[in-house]
Amino acid sequence: MAVTLGRDALLQYRRFSLYNSPFVAHDRGCAIDLYPGDEQTTVETAPSPVAGEVLETRTVTAPPQPYAAEEDHLILVDTGEYVARLLHVKPRVEAGDVVAVGDPLGELVRAGFFAPWVPNHIHLGFREYDANPYRASGSLPVDVAVEVTPVPWDGTGTVTAAGETWAWLDAPVHPAPGEGFAGVESGGGVLDGGFPHYDGGGLLGGGDRAELAGGRVGTVSGRDVTWDDVTVLANGEAVTGVALFCARDRLGVKLVGETVGLHAGERVRVTIE
Question: Would strands 181-186 and 148-151 be described as parallel, antiparallel, or unpaired?
């Protein structure tokens, strides 16, 4: 049984992903990451994607990273149907508080669980009441109550912004910024996930083929994708991969790696080998 996250909840965020994570909690789309801001827009406060009563907050030790906080946080909310499990927010709420969709939960935390190219976000999963809420695995599959428009991409673009570990390309272009979500088209659906640096990804909204930049990139089973053993090249140089999301205003493609070496204004062709 899947849990559907509503349209009003989703429209608070600039983008979302069900699969763009290396952690078991996201296997088969059993969690969703919600991004209030992005690499170019800083947002400090986390708006709640769920309504209900806060059951508990807990602080945990995060993996040590030079760019990240030493601690992460867990917030459990009783939604009336399931227990919502939220991570990466330093809570301003406590047990017994009642929250509505959009209420501030606390401050977004850049946790040591993140890869260096990952911006702040809220991790959300749902558990049955009798399931252990503390284990990483065990959440229900998540669906989204929005249509995501597939946008074709030919593998080319110009860098609009870049950091040491990432570069955003200006293509493909969102067809209607601010009006709904869009993503990179693949076989009639939208490709989601970290390709090929995470174990697998997803194909949302239907579709029957996993393709990117003109070539096959994986095997589709339902909405899950197992990536092929391939390398992503940007202008002939290997990068770790491509981060694929569903975006509400700014689409484009994000290239990631320990060092990417691309600069704003640079024209890029991405190929798969």
Answer: parallel
Give the pTM. Answer: 0.95
C-beta atoms surrounding 85 within 10 Å: 24
Model confidence band, residue 19 (pLDDT cutoffs 50, 70, 90)? very high
Task: Choose the final residue of a domain: 110, 127, 144.
Answer: 144
76-97 tens-digit pLDDT? 999 999 999 999 999 999 999 9
Q: DSSP string covering 168-228, please?
A: EE--SPPSSTTTSEEEEEETTEEEEEEETTSSEEEEESS-S-EEETTEEEEEEETTEEEEP
Q: Give the CATH number, domain containing residue 106.
A: 2.70.70
Total domain count, the chain: 2
Compute the distance between CA of residue 249 and CA of residue 186 in angstroms, rounded to an integer.
Answer: 20
**Do 167 and 252 sit in the same domain of this protein?**
yes
The mean pLDDT of the chain is 94
Instruction: Give the pair of three-digit tokens for residue 250.
Output: 């700014």
256: its two tokens: 């990631």
